[in-house]
Structures are given as structure tokens and as C-alpha cells.
Design a protein that fits this description.
The chain is an all-alpha fold. Helices cover 74% and strands 0% of the residues.
Length: 88
């Protein structure tokens, strides 16, 4: 029986990134640009930084949703107790 699972191949450093890095690197070496080395290497680290930013954003959203759900439940419990207190 064949394996029905499909491999998900995510490439963060694409050939385009490598070509850009090579161009930036050569331009820096031959004094054609006066950029910081951070920007020369940016085609290599920006994809990783974007993934980290997206993950952190989702984690913050999840934390906010969890806290909001907690307070909504507290509010419902407060209203329920208040309603039951008036009937007694």
C-alpha cells in the first residue's frame, strides 16, 4: 500500500534569496553599495524573522482570546449569581 501522506516542504531560504544575497555580497565587496552587513545578509534572515513574528502574533492573539474568554465566563457567573440572588 502506498504512503498517502504528502510531505510539506517549506523552504525559507529560496534560490531567489541566495541570488539576492550573492548580488548584495558582491556589490559590498566591490564597494558598489555602502550598506550595513545586516542588510547584505537580510535575504537569509528576513524569512526566519517573518516566521517568528507570525508565530509570536498568533501566540499573542491566542493569549488575548484566552484572557477574554476567562473574563466573559466571570461576567456570566456574576450575572447568574446576581439573577439568582434577586429571586431568593
Amino acid at each position: 500500500m502506498e504512503n498517502d501522506n504528502k510531505n510539506i516542504n517549506i523552504k525559507l531560504v529560496t534560490p531567489t534569496s541566495l541570488v539576492l544575497f550573492a548580488l548584495f555580497f558582491l556589490a559590498k565587496i566591490f564597494d558598489k553599495i555602502d550598506w550595513s552587513w545586516w542588510w547584505i545578509f537580510s535575504p537569509l534572515w528576513v524569512p526566519f524573522a517573518l516566521i517568528i513574528i507570525i508565530i509570536l502574533g498568533w501566540l499573542l492573539l491566542l493569549a488575548f482570546a484566552t484572557i477574554l474568554d476567562y473574563f466573559v465566563e466571570l461576567w456570566k457567573e456574576y450575572k447568574r449569581k446576581k439573577k439568582n440572588g434577586r429571586k431568593s
